[in-house]
């Protein structure tokens, strides 16, 4: 597929995406990669795109959000989630689309809580759903690149780290395969589910 920028490349899903891309030339970016980036900081993103040159695609698995009981969610918690998971990915498209060759793609990451809210997940549900709305909305903006997303369910390795049954989740490698498929051929404005069952 050519030169692909993977933002969040050091994370569980991001590292699986790098592995799944195989022979494709990956540029790994995260807070602690050779190419450092903080997606909550627009200037950091602009600097990253200034350094990497022309790309064939971008996969963004970065963007944090917080899980807290409703009565413990602060203004700072909401601001953090909005700046990271939502605006971080919006800005990946705003600043990164110019770096992607015409016909290339940008694939973002949402999450299953957009479809299935749960107690304590109001902030995560909100930002995931907003990212999905953005992906659908930007599809009609006549960009020269396809913008789509993947909504992973619970990841097996995360469940195992939490001391829960990993068989209830989907392995990171399977999520990565869905992300690579979206990058290569997923239509603009689509959200692909990568969840068990």
UniProtKB/TrEMBL annotation:
It comes from the Bacteria. Belongs to the short-chain dehydrogenases/reductases (SDR) family. InterPro entries: NAD(P)-bd_dom_sf, SDR_DHRS6-like, SDR_fam. The keyword Cell membrane does not apply. SUPFAM superfamilies: NAD(P)-binding Rossmann-fold domains. The keyword Oxidoreductase applies. It comes from Roseiarcus fermentans. This is NADP-dependent 3-hydroxy acid dehydrogenase YdfG. One of its GO terms (molecular function) is oxidoreductase activity. Keywords: Oxidoreductase.
